Amino acid sequence: MSDRYLAFANSNAGQRLLGAIGLPTPVHLERWRAGRARPIDGALLVGGNGALSAAAAECLPRLTDQLFAAEDGLLGLPRWNAESTKLKALLFDASSLSSAEQLIALRDFFQPTLRKLATCPHVVILARPPESLKDPIAASTQRALEGFSRSLAKEIRHGGTVQLIYVGKGAEDQLEGALRFFLSPKSAYVSGQVVRLAPCAMQVKDWSRPLAGQKALITGASRGIGAAIAETLARDGAEVVLLDVPAAQADLEALAARLGGRSLTLDIVADDAAAKLIEALPDGLDILVHNAGITRDKTLANMTDPLWNSVIDVNLRAPQILTKALFDAGTLRDNSRVVLLASISGIAGNAGQTNYAASKAGLIGLAQAWAPTLGKRGISLNAVAPGFIETQMTAAIPFTIREAGRRMNAMGQGGLPQDVAETVAWLGQAGSGAMSGQVLRICGQSLLGA
Ligand code: NAD
After folding, report:
1. Is the pTM value of this prediction over 0.85?
2. Domains of the chain, with CATH numbers?
């Protein structure tokens, strides 16, 4: 669905009018385009001198050919000249900060950069997980970075993003995948997020086709976010199996044919759904994306049994049952990746969505509770929580509520199905086993549930 305010705000007349009356002007976010060679299309400035920037240094030349340091001698990089070079990306290693007074290093690094940013800049702060540190003062200092990064994400504007990555000991070799995602337009609508990387034995072999050789099943794949996920996983080299209800068969088959994949018509709440899936996937599965979902909104006072049960069954019970069945049957291969489509409704709650929010919060709980068990076979299980994404589902929301949902985030606009798809594709990578049991929001840093 088109966003007329965004289009108007970016027209000449719109810029003049909105600027004059002080209304926010959301920018057109830069997204990943096919054929792009490197994750960062411009200059990357590196700062901070902990062990993590040194660990990342090896992969940085593959991210961009314009690398600069904030201070002389750092990683042997040329010093950034603020007068001549605008910055497209910033990487600050805060892992050595261990006392309150050292936090000033954040201001010292970021302040000179803020008026020198290109449009849609991406910022990553690297740190150590506070819970891994014995010294409570050092742990508290690393925890302080959460407040800093989430606040900077709200200040950065110009379509910029800011994330904090807590890198566990032994997970340094997984930084490339995370940086390729968070420092590139693939994370255009992901901001203010905090993720944790843990050691993972798997590595992506070919960054131009990071999912090559993987078989992926996507539920609810005939349209909207599911179709975008199928396209993106196929773009990244995965062999895709597209699932949807029988009523969506024509669209599903057309998309599967275009992507060189298979289609599977199945109602995921049917009693025999698990058995049919296991039968349809005799060679197993590397990536499972539980995307199918429905809304049946009513206030609790007006909630009928069918409205309640259908949402809980499709959104929560089916992913629970199917994941367990595919795991027990061995259809989910060792080191496979499972991604659950939750929602920020499941984090913040939403009037009229007690059923939907319960189902989506349940998915987040499923990822957190089950990750340790699945991890014994190298399987990761994460949830993504989209905010307002422009699809048929959100087009059906009444106008005033839809406009509020679109604008109430740091980017002043809704996301696109592609934004969710890029995140799922990253979590589907072999090396993304470094993340499990986590929830990643794709919401332009929505004010809801913040
Ligand atoms: P959509 O309604 O456009 O697509 C959902 C798909 O799921 C449809 O193709 C539908 O046929 C399929 N489906 C529904 N019930 C099924 C069943 N029983 N068996 C098999 N397939 C079934 O929705 P969307 O906006 O693309 O959302 C996709 C997912 O993202 C959902 O889980 C949704 O809750 C979640 N989400 C969406 C948004 C948003 O803003 N659009 C926000 C947060 C979360």
Report:
1. yes
2. 31-197 (3.40.50.720), 215-442 (3.40.50.720)
